[in-house]
Please model this.
Amino acid sequence: MATDDRLGYWDTFYGRSSLPLPSLPSQFAAFALGEMFVLSVEDKIDGVIEFGCGNGRDSHFFSAYGFDLLALDASAEAIELCRSLSRHPQARFEQCRATQAREQIEGFLIGKQRVAVYARFFLHAIREEEQNDFLTLLGALLPAGCLLFLEYRTVADAEQEKVFGDGHYRRYLDHRATLAGIEASGFSVLYEIEGHGLAKYRDEDAKVGRCVAMKQTAR
Ligand SMILES: C[S@@+](CC[C@H](N)C(=O)[O-])C[C@H]1O[C@@H](n2cnc3c(N)ncnc32)[C@H](O)[C@@H]1O
Model:
């Protein structure tokens, strides 16, 4: 599928109001929020940037807990849906491709010490070159100490049946290679796991990789 076809796919997906999209926050969002709240006062997060926010199920959850939020998605329909559902003044939704988000990231970082970057089921929805550019951009822009929360489908998930069928573009990731790519972009992995039971939806129990990483000071 060509890049623009993929984005057209997501516009159709989020523009179909009859589709029963999950509205509860994901298990990964609950986990990430828990991790953000156990940080000590001096390490605390003062904002969340979400990439590939979809219908905003996790963005609304983070902003409901008081976080300043910037949520980005390349699909105009997804962003329109998020804005129509948003109830929190500190949440901002913008249509933007992840690799072109330099200005948005820099603007959001003004006056902030430490942010969390969150992307669920996003890395496997973009091509490998785009993933590399995305991680390089984060490595270049985020100050030391910022946290990165990522969850993605891994190779063993390829054969499993999907609730949302085969229309989605899915690039099943090698968990170890993905962690190596994250570290090569200037982050150290603090926590990682690959398995089932982490991203259940109706009768689907995807095999996923999860990672929490911290931006290191430049060497
Ligand atoms: C599988 S959905 C995940 C949505 C949401 N994070 C969730 O977990 O329910 C992938 C999302 O990534 C978005 N997306 C795909 N390519 C993108 C890109 N290059 N930049 C930003 N968003 C993109 C799609 O529009 C879609 O909303």
Observations:
- The domain at 3-215 is CATH 3.40.50.150 (Rossmann fold).
- The CA atoms of residues 66 and 90 lie 8 Å apart.
- Strands lie at 48-51, 69-73, 91-95, 116-120, 147-153, 187-195, 200-201, 204-205, 208-215.
- The chain has seven helices and nine strands.
